[in-house]
Design goal:
The complex is a heterodimer of chains A (242) and B (162). Chain A is of the alpha+beta class. Chain A has two domains: 82 residues; 133 residues, Heat Shock Protein 90 (2-Layer Sandwich). Helices cover 51% and strands 19% of the residues of chain A. In chain A, α1 packs antiparallel against α2. The model of chain B has no long low-confidence stretch (mean pLDDT 91). In chain B, β4, α4 and β5 form a beta-alpha-beta unit. Chain B has six helices and five strands; from the N terminus they run βαβαβαβαβαα. In chain B, α2 runs parallel beside α3 and α5 packs antiparallel against α6. The chains are: A alpha+beta (242), B alpha/beta (162).
């Protein structure tokens, strides 16, 4: 499979995984709201039978509906921002904002494995001119790789640092490696090449998996073009064609 | 509480678990909520439940495994799946594992109540069928003049029915 095709397929898989887990969360919220409103109807029916209306209970249910609506709104906003990361291949990105959104987007895969997350972000803003979709895909892939490398309940560390005007992101697991997904691991350098960066695979002191992404301030020229408009090697002549 | 149906409700979403448990408790059910698969399995080992209402996608032991364990450990327990993450493949697997019903969230309470009551009916029928078969077996094997042996077998049967 060509790298371009692989990039496209992995990108779609990432997009699918995020939207599937988010739509699941939104469905959960809808189910909670439906049950809370149903409970209000139940209480009204009881009151209709002549029992004193339970106003305090009503107030609490109404508050809980409000909380769920807010949770849903926040999720939809994040999902919308995520969908828009596909609009342009190059954007100015605040790395802390991008990672905060990604942490929320990847909450379900983490909680499914009962992972705890510890983050360390710098006080200064790190701005990159890069591809936001590929950046999120790279960090998400690292999280998945680290989570899959060990048992459930592990501590996941996500560290963002400034590195020569670019960014350095470390995703590390605390528990010793049990298995590694070689196919996913071999795709990371392809992704990082698109971003003009590199990935280092390190073992932590406890024998856990640590992935360090070095991302430059800006993208390489060729990566600024959409995949379909890139120069393709002319197999017959050995030259590149637009 | 004696005439209420003993129901175990399992869901990792606390708000949902709490609300659905309250609503079902206001009806024909004596509800025990469990926030995870592990908690549900433990609860069922300590107390007898007639039906379990189980979510599928949970951290730790997922709903399909919970179904398998509950059905394996509790002969007459009926299990109904209530999930926001359903699919044909999972529904087929659950059916093979002996699930009574497979519902998707959000679910109309009327539909849920209907399925839970039908599941309870099936449990009653299965227990009666089992009792009938056992009695037939005891009678066919009975040696004239051994009432104590018959009594012992009847007691054994009652124990199994519990």
């Amino acid at each position: 499979m060509s790298e371009e095709k692989r990039l496209r397929e992995k990108g779609l898989a990432f997009f699918g995984s995020i939207t599937a887990s988010f739509s699941h969360e939104i469905n959960n919220i809808m189910a909670i709201i439906a049950e809370l409103s149903g409970l209000m109807e139940d209480l009204l029916r009881v009151a209709d039978l002549g029992h004193p209306p339970q106003l305090e209970r009503f107030r609490r249910i109404s508050e809980r509906i409000g909380t769920q609506v807010k949770r849903g709104e926040e999720m939809i906003k994040r999902l919308n921002r995520f969908a828009h990361t596909m609009d342009e291949p190059v954007k100015t990105i605040d790395m802390t904002h991008l990672l905060v959104d990604l942490i929320a987007l990847s909450e379900r895969p983490r909680t499914r494995r009962r992972a705890r997350l510890e983050t360390r972000f710098p006080e200064e803003t790190i701005l990159l001119v890069s591809n936001p979709f590929l950046l999120q895909q790279a960090v998400f892939s690292c999280m998945e790789l680290v989570l899959d490398a060990s048992h459930d309940n592990q501590l996941l560390r996500l560290i963002l640092e400034n590195q020569d005007g670019g960014a350095r992101i470390t995703v590390a697991g605390e528990d010793p490696i049990v298995k590694t997904d070689e196919a996913a691991l071999s795709f990371l350098p392809v992704l990082m090449e698109e971003l003009g960066g590199k990935v280092e695979v390190i073992s932590t002191d406890n024998g856990g998996l640590s992935l360090v992404l070095s991302i430059p301030y800006s993208l390489p020229e060729d990566s600024k073009k959409p995949i379909d408009n890139r120069r393709k090697p002319d197999v017959a002549s050995g030259k590149s064609t637009a | 509480m004696a005439d209420k149906i003993k129901l175990l409700v399992v869901d990792d979403e606390k708000q949902f678990l709490e609300t659905i448990s309250t609503r079902l408790s206001m009806r024909d059910f004596d509800v025990t909520p469990a926030n995870s698969g592990e908690e549900a399995i433990e609860a069922a080992r300590k107390q007898e439940f007639e039906i379990a209402l189980v979510d599928l996608n949970m951290p730790g032991i997922g709903g399909e495994k919970v179904l398998e364990i509950l059905k394996g450990e509790h002969k007459f327990m009926e299990v109904v799946i209530l999930t926001g993450y359903g699919g044909i493949d999972s529904a087929i697997r659950c059916t093979k594992a002996g699930v009574y019903g497979y519902l998707e969230k959000p679910c109309e309470l009327g539909t849920l109540l209907k399925v839970l009551r039908e599941a309870y009916q099936r449990r009653v029928q299965n227990k009666l069928k089992f009792k009938h078969e056992k009695l037939k077996e005891i009678v066919s094997e009975a040696v004239p003049g051994s009432p104590l042996e018959i009594l012992r077998k009847l007691k054994e049967m009652d124990k199994e029915l519990k």
